Amino acid sequence: MKTACILLIGNEILSGRTQDQNAPYLAARLGELGVKVMEMRVIRDDEAIIVEAVNSARATHDYVFTTGGIGPTHDDITTPSIAKAFGVAYALNPAALKLLVDRYGEAKLNDARRRMAHTPEGATLIENSISAAPGFQMANVYVMAGVPEIMRVMFESIAESFAGAAPVASVTVRCDLPEGAIAAELGTLQGRFLDVEIGSYPFYSETGAGCDLVLRSTDPNRIAQAADQVRDLVRDLGGNPSSKNGAP
Amino acid sequence: MKTACILLIGNEILSGRTQDQNAPYLAARLGELGVKVMEMRVIRDDEAIIVEAVNSARATHDYVFTTGGIGPTHDDITTPSIAKAFGVAYALNPAALKLLVDRYGEAKLNDARRRMAHTPEGATLIENSISAAPGFQMANVYVMAGVPEIMRVMFESIAESFAGAAPVASVTVRCDLPEGAIAAELGTLQGRFLDVEIGSYPFYSETGAGCDLVLRSTDPNRIAQAADQVRDLVRDLGGNPSSKNGAP
After folding, report:
1. Which CATH fold would you assign to the domain A169-242?
2. Are B175 and B248 spatial neighbours (Cβ–Cβ below 8 Å)?
3. How near does any CA of chain A get to the CA of B122, in Å?
4. Could you tell me which chain A residue has the CA closest to the CA of B29?
5. What whole-number distance in Å separates Cα of residue A243 and Cα of residue B16?
6. What is the pLDDT along chain A (248 residues), one digit of tens a residue?
7. Are A147 and B204 inside 8 Å of each other by CB?
8. Could you give phi then psi for residue B179, rounded to 5 degrees?
């Protein structure tokens, strides 16, 4: 399976002001496409930090997806930082300029907006069907906007290029026993299904403690076999397995 | 200012299944306490990855806060991994054992639950007033639960120990002009207020594009001065500044 790192660039997330919506979206979509997200990082709008993080991530993972910092204001420094990470010039991109001229007209295309027509030299543009200013790709690094609506149309415009490997499927068995009551047996069961990742996520409700047992694999048949055994295990220990919405 | 790294440990966040709530909470609270969050990382439940991330973060930042992976199931490997990162034994902690015996009684304290009474040798416990099983501190690393309600009571039980430095205050000026129309002048203004961090966050509404201009600093007087100038700037450029809820 191909691997990916999601790099969120923006002080507003680190301050707690903004709750990021991009990483969960990308993680879910990449999983559907068969790409395994190995890491997410949120970093500051700081050139040295961005350069280090991008170079580390692109050397380690098959794909790197960044969001944020490609707008027209002084705190938007992702694009020149990516150019620096790749050791290439930060330059006006004629194709990007044309998109912005078509959108704003020459009269409204002030210097700040012209910044959004710059990319690292050699970049391939990523379409922005909402507000024209494009994202771009440099080798295995995909640079997208931070505004969730725009990030999504950018990602969807390139999503099919990542498809191919088997997608990861998942089944959740809701268990009405606390995880401490099933942990030992569940660990043994995990040992019999090394190709199915079994996670246990506790919850607390008015009727007591329980846990969601989430089975993930690229092989739906193995998930189904493991899920049957998980349900049997819950019953053997005196509980009732159900689906997450309460159905048996 | 002291700096911090937030380390979220859990495959469920990387798969997109779970939307993390802990990082935004910690970021906001740490800001109030005067601690600057420099980075957030989400990493897999994998010993080698946890060891590398913890050792890198604790060498770089004043504080490291981890969430997740300290429960009783096979996928909860944070505690032994932290022991490995510090090069100390993973061992039964008598004080933690007493908390769990008091909670569950000897009869229900099976081997899986006894795992939650283990810590790295030399750890200081962090109280869990909800479900007893404690978090712990090793030097500048604070290890907490992933369940948001439990993470919060754990953090609040130690929060006052981080207070001291001046907290970061913020003011948001809502601007009804698109950020491309104010970017150049805003950059000039930022140059006059190097002690106030000014961020611009675009939004799109039925009445057109606008942006929230967020001013952050430990000095409320400097924020107020900068905010006055930001409002003047928006007016000079033909817009109307307001607070985020629309008040002038």
Report:
1. Alpha-Beta Plaits (3.30.70)
2. no
3. 25
4. A16
5. 19
6. 899 999 999 999 999 989 999 999 999 999 989 999 999 999 999 999 999 999 999 999 999 999 999 999 999 999 999 999 999 999 999 999 999 999 989 888 999 999 999 999 999 999 999 989 999 999 999 999 999 999 999 999 999 999 876 788 899 999 999 999 999 999 999 999 999 999 999 988 777 889 999 999 999 999 999 999 999 999 999 999 998 755 55
7. yes
8. -65, -25
* Separation of alpha carbons B61 and B140, rounded Å: 9
pTM reported for the whole predicted model: 0.91
Q: Is the ipTM of this complex over 0.85?
A: yes
| Region of residue A238 (left: phi > 0; alpha: psi -120 to 50; beta: else) | left
User: How many CB pairs below 8 A link A and B?
Assistant: 191
Residues facing residue B92 across a β-bridge: B118
Per the CB < 8 A criterion, the answer to whether A200 and A211 are in contact is yes
The CATH homologous superfamily for domain A2-162 is: MoaB/Mog-like domain (3.40.980.10)
Chain A partners within 8 Å of B112 (Cβ): 179-180, 183-184, 187
Domain ranges of chain B: 2-162, 169-242
Backbone angles phi, psi at A147, to 5 degrees: -65, 120
- Interchain contact B32–A (C-beta under 8 A): no
Cα gap A227→B32, rounded to integer Å: 45
Tokens of B74: 């096979």
Cross-strand pairs, B143:
B66, B136
Which of residues 169 through 188 in chain A touch B, CB cutoff 8 A? 170, 179-184, 186-187
